[in-house]
Protein 1
Amino acid sequence: MRYLTEADIEALEIGAAILGTGGGGNPYIGKLRTLQELRNGRSIRLISLDELNDDALVATVGGIGAPIVSIEKLEHGAEGVWAVQALEAHLGRKIDALAAAEIGGANSMMPMITAAQLGISVVDGDGMGRAFPEMQMTTFSIYGHRSVPAVLADERGNLVLFKHTTSEEWFEKLARATTVAMGGSSVGVEAPMPGRYVKRAAVPGTVSQAIALGHLVLAANRQHADPIPLICKQEGGVHLMDGKIVDLKRHLRGGFSVGEIALEGIQAFSGQRGSIVFQNEFLLLKQEGVVRVSVPDLVVLLDVDSGRAITTDVLRYGQRVAVLGLPCHPLLRTPEALKVVGPAAFQLHDVEFKPLRAA
Amino acid sequence: MRYLTEADIEALEIGAAILGTGGGGNPYIGKLRTLQELRNGRSIRLISLDELNDDALVATVGGIGAPIVSIEKLEHGAEGVWAVQALEAHLGRKIDALAAAEIGGANSMMPMITAAQLGISVVDGDGMGRAFPEMQMTTFSIYGHRSVPAVLADERGNLVLFKHTTSEEWFEKLARATTVAMGGSSVGVEAPMPGRYVKRAAVPGTVSQAIALGHLVLAANRQHADPIPLICKQEGGVHLMDGKIVDLKRHLRGGFSVGEIALEGIQAFSGQRGSIVFQNEFLLLKQEGVVRVSVPDLVVLLDVDSGRAITTDVLRYGQRVAVLGLPCHPLLRTPEALKVVGPAAFQLHDVEFKPLRAA
């Protein structure tokens, strides 16, 4: 158990953006809101999976919607609390701890803010170990727990409870339609589950992992060192390319930010070509037309100068990026998991998942 | 208090279709399902507003979605029961009686079926006295009661509870999006309210009214008499035109069946021209370019030969129709009501509502 500091939250912003693989929303606003909670005297208590009581009731919390919407559509700030309280009223009992549905991007901050406001703990683990665009794409759902009952809240105070859905896909479909009707973003509290299940199904230690990653980048920045080899070493990843964005297609489809970018190699990678497909998150990197990294492994884009992660909503023509491949957690590479978060789940039917290997 | 007979349900089909003004869904399938409940030994107990206990808890029930969808997308049959039970679980108490949200069309049958299955009463009154396309367009909502908490069910068993919405329009928007995601139709149970409010806000006696209207048409059919003057006399309405449909525009927009028809007068109305705008229901009749009837008054189309109501989903080129104008209930003509169900609420901004008068 540890209490997170302001420095940890600054680091979490950076690490969560890297693990977000371009999605999960920009954590900047969430960071400011989390820091505000700390400055208001609230505390963020992080507990490891080992410290979690078997009988504790844990729910996931996260923002839903295309990242690009959340830049201009501000939250009220209490959506998570409203949704937790509505779910508690429905269940007739208190929720003891919150976990991030996804550690990637803004959704890393959501449990911090809501747990601080409610005075409950945050679990050191999440349902993705990265970010994914759909709600059934959590290890909690993959390994058999239902996302419903779940509550969605918007900044006005609208509260919709999904009492029962006949499948995880139906929950995603109905919650997505509700989110689009709410204006493109909402906050969801889902999957109330016992601690003993969280211990088995969560991707473990991902809050600490993101914070450590952020501290490493910040230390490199202070020492004017290149963070990229350090990130690769810490995460067991590969620095695959430095490139310039020479083509960018991006549009909103059903609440998702989808598209493709083309890259032309620069510096040591001059003369090489790459392309990246995304749906909120980066899904697939091809080099010279050959698949190099695909979901569920992580395709990470960093600004080649600052080493900070680039999200799909701020991609622009001419941007110079470093492309990294990071291996996902083994919980995402099982046959059950690949059915839900492998290439075919993203309509990439001609791609077979091959675990990332060092070059 | 009376128990409805099979003959009453046959009559209700005809009368509810007339009051449906083209919308509310075709009551034919609902009638078959209601008759089946009676043949299975269940009973339908109709109580007047006077007989309703002040402290009874009453909810409305109705199908949501474009009528054209419900022809091919069959219901499971227990949606209403599932939704009532989910709402009861949320409220922590039993619902004592059901009312139609709208008496027009298929939604007249929904409380009959669900109340028979649950063994509770149906209230003789509804929220529209006709049919309207949106859920906030009930007298219950207009006179101050909220539609939420409400539950939507689909034929798979998906159950979505609208716990709180910041306005009636937000409920409509969120429930509509959910319905579209459910495939275009759903069953909703809404607005749990005390008997004393229902007595004040319901359009009174509309189940009996629809049944009486149906018996009148059936009796005229048996006697080879023209039902149209009889309907006009009983409802205080006007026979405005007989015409042939010479143009028909119809499309689905956001779950609604919207469009316009052009009519060329036939028989006694030869040489006249008319046009009718619809959004699930017929909203507006113009004759020679002049507004003759507009919402909330009823524009009713009957087959010129059979005298049966024509719904917007079966309109076709060349059809020969009788057009009637029927006055709506005074509860729909107050300034509060006209804000919600007057021409401007249907984007007919250049139309000022003038109560229908006999020619």
Protein 2
Amino acid sequence: MGSTLAMVGATGAVGRELIAVLEEREFPVDELRLLASPRSAGTEIPFRGEALRVEVLSEERLAGCDTVFFSAGGDTSLEWAPRAVAAGAVVIDNSSAFRYEDYVPLVVPEVNPEAALKHQGIIANPNCTTILLVVALGPLHAIAGLVQVTVATYQAASGAGAQAMEELRSQAAAILAGEEPQVSCFPQPIGFNLFPHIDRFLPEEDFATKEEMKVVWESRKIFGLPNLQAISTCVRVPTFRAHSEAVFCSFERELSVADARAALKAAPGVRVVDDPLAGRYPTPREAEGIDDVLVGRIRPDPTRDRGLSLFLSGDQLRKGAALNAVQIAELLQ
Amino acid sequence: MGSTLAMVGATGAVGRELIAVLEEREFPVDELRLLASPRSAGTEIPFRGEALRVEVLSEERLAGCDTVFFSAGGDTSLEWAPRAVAAGAVVIDNSSAFRYEDYVPLVVPEVNPEAALKHQGIIANPNCTTILLVVALGPLHAIAGLVQVTVATYQAASGAGAQAMEELRSQAAAILAGEEPQVSCFPQPIGFNLFPHIDRFLPEEDFATKEEMKVVWESRKIFGLPNLQAISTCVRVPTFRAHSEAVFCSFERELSVADARAALKAAPGVRVVDDPLAGRYPTPREAEGIDDVLVGRIRPDPTRDRGLSLFLSGDQLRKGAALNAVQIAELLQ
């Protein structure tokens, strides 16, 4: 069965990756409508050998759609997603606008696919850092029961959009040339630098960033563990499009490294890269452009009961955003 | 009182920083002998307006020295440090060769200065990551009693030496030009990449890296807490010369964020940079070239009893190596 799809935010980093993923996975599409702000309208983007012209987002262009992907930021989703639903579409929203609403499923297909079927028109795609984390922890939680998780992240420029990736490039070039880096997308220079500041600071959460709380809130919702003990420190680093995470966690039941590795090897969406003596462990460079989350450095965490530590890398634009959204759409077919 | 100093490994990244720190701090020096391998001999390095010529390391040149700084790697220290001691010098060793010997004090002057006075000829300068960590945790341990610490690091290229910094530069330039990065010092490309692999993997320590175990072993020794629960994941990132660390820790006694901040503000060697709403938190860019360890993002860690989280950045070559070594020498004066 083919379908009519629309994509709001088609010219952004995630939008372009969505188009690539739809092509690669041969998602059944009769018509694909690329929608964006008036500023981006008129841009041509290739899809299955055709040049599709980006149109201005409007109620008319949402009418008749089966599925609408939103990746144009929270404000656009808040304003337009309900209209798309009212026009009969299912919305798969990449923003955080609806993620914490009880009536909106938050879905990572490898972990909680059943949740997608309970939607009331909107399904939320989780935050990229959360997706990568729960893909790795899901198989371990399934056999041992997750109790606590501590995460420090290494997040790529792509998480802040296509312009941010360009800013990393131009700042690095400036610094190599002995010039001052020009800051525009980011709160700090990112070229040869890093900073623990992604999304805004929340005074009501002890000045954690919203990104850090997304990891906590969303992991709880996806796993159905409202009391999961979780903390994260989220750090932007000068890589282009793959995030990494140093993870320390503990479980209800004993979980040996061998059992953890076996569960991860058998899990969908995970590639175990864990042969340190051969120089094999996850890196963003190896994770760029691929679908799987790379998991390695699996070892005991002796500082806590039934503790385990691991390191992961995953493409922020693919599994962290576009691929997960398309997988959700596939669940609905 | 002036003295005769020698520096073994004078042409390396740490050696050059040592010379700069001796100048800046007006360390009393009658004679400074710069020693290195035959390959580097003949190089001229300025010190207090004079061009000092690097000489080949030999027993003759160690004779008559009061203090000898070693920063030429573990093998050189193992071979030559005992000879320097036999010749009457006190050795301050920047390698890990003697750090874990009971008879060798491991000293961070802000934390355990008294240990320096108990030396038997060799005093070890801790690993850079450990130094930065204990400078930040020392004042908190003093008032609340450290129980557990989890660290994920963001370590600069300088930790692998001067050539490694150049390799980061040349790889970044290659990638910006669309070329393949050439790898020589590092186990993986570092330009726009990162990897959890610093020093070698230790099969007997569940495949932790030696760097990761240094943080554990050395923190225990410096704090005099042989049972301290500690784990670290050490990651090389594409910054030039400042390390950062995401730290999660817990204490024996209650420690409010306000009390932690007050203790850190009063502590030597620490600069509290913690006003997130004003965009103020530690970054490697701000830490480069300065003496203090920047500490910020101080907040509760609700996942553990009496838990606290913080983020720090510190210059790896200064407080992480050269400055700490000179401060040790100052303790002995």
